[in-house]
Amino acid sequence: MIEVKNLTKSYGSHLAVDHLNFTIDKGRIYGFLGPNGAGKSTTMNIMTGYLGATEGEVLIDGHDILKEPEEAKKSIGYLPEIPPLYMEMTVEEYLDFAAELKKLKKEERRKQVDQVIELVKLEDVRHRLIRNLSKGYRQRVGLAQAVLGYPEVIILDEPTVGLDPQQIIEIRQLIRDLAKEHTIILSSHILAEVSEVCDYIMIISKGKLVASDTTENLEALMGGAGSLELLIKAPKEQTSVILSKVGHIQRADYADGEETGTTKVVLEVENDADIREELFFAFAEEKCPILSMQRTKTTLEDVFLELTQQNKEEDANHESDL
Amino acid sequence: MKAIYKRELQSYLQNMTGCIFIAFLTGFVGIYFMALNLNYGHPYFSYTLSGVTFILMIAIPILTMRSFAEDRKNKTDQLLLTSPVTLTSVVMGKYFSMVTIFAVPVLIFCFFPLIIKAQGTAYLKVDYCSILMFFLLGCVYISIGMFLSSLTESQIIAVISTFGVLLLVYLWDSLTHFMPTSAVGNAIALAAFWTIIALVVFEMMKNWIAAAILEVVGVAAVVITYVAKSSLFENLLSNVMGKLSLIAVFTDVSDNHIFDISGVVLYVSLIGLFIFLTIQSIQKRRWS
Question: Which residue of B has its CA nearest to A86?
Fold first, then answer.
């Protein structure tokens, strides 16, 4: 569907996008994730033909975005970070204009504009000037524009920024509905959003692709051995003696609990073995109460932080080498 | 192109810029027409037109300032440039919409010679040729304004720089009188001009060798030509500048009643040049 090969964009000596490679397949929701200034918007702007790349190429359905721009752009709908709206137009006028710009046939235009207005719920404001609309409605008008013409790929740059929670839920639902027939690429610096909506995540940091996999795989990949957190009503020494009798423990970290006379232990367990029952009986035998026991799982949050920070450390090392 | 043309036209009429432009131009020319033709009884409308060319210098920048600067500021250029339309058609759509707005007062001017005819003798051929040249002159100004608007995202900078360039065009004839007449002076001025070109080339290519070769070859050519036939350089600059005078082409028609086709060619080629430069400046921005 979309192939990005060796994409590089530099502004002077600053590399905004650094040799990016990936492919986008049909019918999935892709998430571009990265901290602010990671190069998400630049990548999207290049993919849609707004900016030229310093190096590399973008193929859309086999058409190079720079060599055959008209063919390539036909299969893309784009909602940039700031919706490109003409303030002096009404919603309907604007969408009519966008439909004509996308070269829809005259008889199709009316029908499609009505359809997208219904799809993104703009019926109430269709005759109002865009100037007078709230941020949420403007975002939806921008989205309607991207959907017009039902392009195969819809690219959304931070579609939920600045919306209230209710609107965010609505937009997410809309994205899921659209994903039934379109390929969607969205960018965000909010993890929860990407992990909730997207099937496939690409983490970008400093213009580089640091990870790209399905949401589940990414969690599993970094998850490794799960860990157990226990709060025990006993001093450290006693706890360690009891724990030494239990198998499958790779590592145990001890700390004082908040209440006096309690100990907090974090256990790393071999091969994801379930040792909770064993632990319970071991402590019960010694009449040592377990106040709480919790399984912790590596979240996407950890993956994200680890990957983006790793990158920073590498950079720091690199700089100190110089 | 049609979609962009229609939208631009509508927006010019909706946000008053277009309406004010039309009213301003019609009103001013109307006052001059009333004073010169109706009151003093001058039978040539062309004479009125040559008196109001300076109005274009004020009105055109206001028309052209928003053409690309506003799009860039509001990021609506992202919509235009990611749509399946060519950049050329975006530029042409915008250009023709501005020309259309300018054509409205020009069409109104077409009635003025008829009013004169109703009062007595009129020289319709001269008058209509002048109106045509006035229209083409305005189209050249619009293309200059559009180009300058595409260079910036501030409408204020666009309007001021366009005014500055049009002022230069307006004063062009007077400036030619200050050019050196002697062969030596012209040769030196030409060499200096060539040096500026070489510096621009260096700035664009960042290549010392290419710029230096260009400079040496150019200056050598000037020196050799000067040694061989110094009479070639006499009045060279003022002659060349005189050929490029936009206002002189217009006043030849309006005041001297000489309709020279080379003037039309000059206007049309300048329009083409500035439309081309507009496209290039937008392309360049995408790559830098």
Answer: B76
